[in-house]
User: What shape does this take?
Amino acid sequence: MDGLVKLSQAHFDNAYGFRVSQAPIEHATLEISISATEPNGTAHQTTVLASMVSENNLSSWAKAGVESGSPSCEAHLKLIRIDQIHGEIPNISKAAFRSLTSAMGVHPAALYMVCGKYDGFHTYKGPGLSHTWFFGSSTHALLWCFSPSKRQTVGMFFERRRANFQDFCRVLSAFSDHIHAPQVLFLSSAIHQQHNFDVETASELGVIHRIEQQTGFGPSAVKTYALIKSEPTVKMVRAEIDELTVWSQAVGEISVNFSNRGRNHHTFWKMLATLRQAEEDSDTLGIPQGPAMERYKASLRELCNALPTIERQMETYDEYILYLKARTERLSSVLFTLLTHVDARAGISLASAAKRDSSSMKTVAIMTMAFLPATFFAALFAMPLLEWDGSHMVQKGFWVYWACTIPVTLLVFGLWLGIIERKWIVGGKGSPKGSKHE
Assistant: This one.
């Protein structure tokens, strides 16, 4: 394990990029704390605070509230948002990030997950270190630590594909009474991502509906019923090849998104299974016995009570995704067929145009043949070798005309036949050596 820790730390130090600019910026944060208002701990107060923290103060921000590990402070959760520059590197300096992870007590092996922009769910626990969890998806990543002695959870929320930190904070705030258990981020992440999936799926389903209506294929196609026949007849809109290409690209992207969500759903199942296993195995995370342990178990129990509802929703979504994937695959096949038909229609149009051109050329050739004899005799009779008023109409040198005309005519026909038969252009006896044309 020590070797893996060293390799992860070295890879992170050498390969991971950060913002080059040294000017510190401010990051959005969320803090939730539960404190006892009565000496006997019977009354509790939950505080939710959103603020901005400068990079220069990240280390002190992560450690602040530790001293409030007094009996009056029962639990503390902190979360900081780290966006990305051009969707590639975290918008934070390397020094600030290093001080923050050190103050949080992040397990070094978890840095490799951040470095490689990994997806999935991973847990880490080492001697003398806080408990560390990492969750990554296509939209965001979450890295958080829990200190059992300080009853404090500190995490980093990495933006990836789009900004959704505020939405996640709203979901997390709904479970603010259960931050005694750091597994609250398990359930919050699954619910938040499921909400995102529902919104994205509804938007993509609208695209599928429009394409089905335009093509006339699929459940959303507009069907009318004939008066005599009971089978529905579908009115299909004939689309151009560019429009069909755009539709095919959109359907392909949607199908890939469905597959990606299925992969992320597998991660959610692992997280929720870990949450249930922690409750069944009475995993205390090293929390000392006493009121803190009881509050942790109570929070864990309440979080697990919500699992059946969330799991049923996820099962329903998994089945729906399988149906939508089959639907998009069928629609993709339909679009491919339509593209083939459009291409065939274009080929037929080209063939018809070529046929018309061929007919035109044949007409020109026939007209030329019709006038060729008259042209020949007109030119022949106009030659000075013929004297119509003399005693000899044909002069003695008239043979020179035929001596030149006949060989040249034969030469032209020979060249034409050679080109037609491709004797000396490709594949013939006179072709250059090494020619691969046929």
Q: What stands out?
A: The chain has a mean pLDDT of 80. The longest helix spans residues 307-381. The chain has ten helices and eleven strands. Residues 83 and 163 are 8 Å apart (CA to CA).
